[in-house]
Amino acid sequence: MPDPRVTKLAELLTRYSLRIRKGDYVLIRGSSVAAPLIQECYRHAVRAGANIETAVSVDGLSEIFYKEASTAQLEWISPTADRRYRKIDAMYGIWGEVNTRSLTHCDPKKMATAQAAHEKLTKVFSERSAKGELRWVGTQWPTQANAQDAEMSLAEYEDFVFKAGHLDAADPVAVWKAISKAQAALKKKLDRCKEVRIVAGDTDLTFACQGRTWENCDGRLNFPDGEVFTGPVEESVNGHVRFSFPAVHHGREVNDVFLEFKDGKVVKANASKGEEFLRAMIDMDAGACRLGEAAFGTNYNITTYTRNTLFDEKIGGTIHLALGAGYPETGSTNRSGLHWDMVCDLRDGGEIYADGTLIQKDGRFLDDRFPQPQAAKPKGKAARKRSAGTSPKKKSTKKKTRKKTGE
């Protein structure tokens, strides 16, 4: 008998996130370690009348590939994967790792070669998604490896994962609809915005977003969800940012990342650990040195860094920026084989300005119509008035001393 929370998650992914319909061509992708959730998603998709293919991977294959593949093999594109991405109506992506560090000693240049080659598939997938032709959702299966990364027991991590998705609520769908409403208000504000400025410790970054669309992520793509994102105007990004948490990509951890941008391009990239890998990814292709995404994390049920981007980028009171490929639905034109999210914590002194007006301070939006921590949600019109007429103030860009998670 499966954990009832797993059954509830599979039902929510099928009915709410993907809206599976009779006759849909559906792909379920995942690791064999996530078999319990794969089985439940399969069961609910069958009940919904879908036609289903599965692609279940075995742990350890990626390590073999990156260590032993020739250049020709690294650049090879599977015709099966190409066909699926062009034809499927919906896809479940179910992540779960036996060893999150298995790629630590793989050559970053070989990894960059393979990712750059797959940019064609990424483009097909992104364009079909932007047109509404392909529905997809990605979620995490709690494993011992992920629990260890988060410095939790497996039972604690399971509770964390399911709580992050509000699966402990009597009616999770109703909760996500309420979140969607609050995020829609924020999206409406940002869609009228021309420029965003982010200020925090060793961070002062601006980007233009005029003419771009902000997306309301309310559990229909990633799950758990909780963010509002856009694609910055490519040449407009200027300033610098120091990311608060280690940036993890394909199991490689890079600590204390500092990036400086000029007219949209990274002109300086440093890290206290993993700098060679960071620079190899930035040099992957022409688009890897630019931002494809900027987003506000709005899931206040997630408060702790866990070394898992699915959760970390959603932490309420943070922002995340992604180097590389943007999402066409936002208006982004940046193309790359890379998409690497990095998180900056704004909960201790951080500020966000929209067209010169302060809209968030210390990780809390000043307008109570926007996403708020449920336990301390401001009331009435007073909170909304606080955001009006506030001009940005310059902060020192001197690097602050901080405790870096994972070191």
**Main β-sheet: number of strands, strand sense, barrel status?**
8 strands, antiparallel
Q: Segments where pLDDT lies below 50 for 5+ residues?
A: 375-389, 394-407
Q: Which structural class best describes the helix and strand composition?
A: alpha+beta
Tell me the β content.
Answer: 15-25%
Number of helices: 13
For the residues shown, what is the average pLDDT? 91
Strand order of the largest sheet: 14-13-10-6-5-18-19-20
Q: How many domains, as an integer?
A: 2
Shape: globular
Instruction: Give the strand tally.
Output: 20
Distance between the first and last residues' Cα: 40 Å
Proportion in helices: 25-40%
What would you report as the Rg, rounded to the nearest angstrom? 21 Å
Walk me through what this model shows.
- By secondary structure, the chain is α+β, with helices and mostly antiparallel strands.
- 30% of the residues lie in helices and 25% in strands.
- It contains 13 helices and 20 strands.
- It has an 8-stranded antiparallel β-sheet with strand order 14-13-10-6-5-18-19-20. A 5-stranded parallel β-sheet has the order 2-1-3-4-8, with helices on one face.
- A hairpin with a 2-residue loop joins strand 18 (351-354) and strand 19 (357-361).
- Helix 1 (4-17) crosses helix 2 (35-47).
- The model is unreliable at 375-389 and 394-407 (pLDDT under 50).
In short:
The chain has 407 residues and is α+β, with helices and mostly antiparallel strands. It has 2 domains: 4-141, Thermophilic metalloprotease-like, CATH 3.40.1830; 193-385, no CATH class.
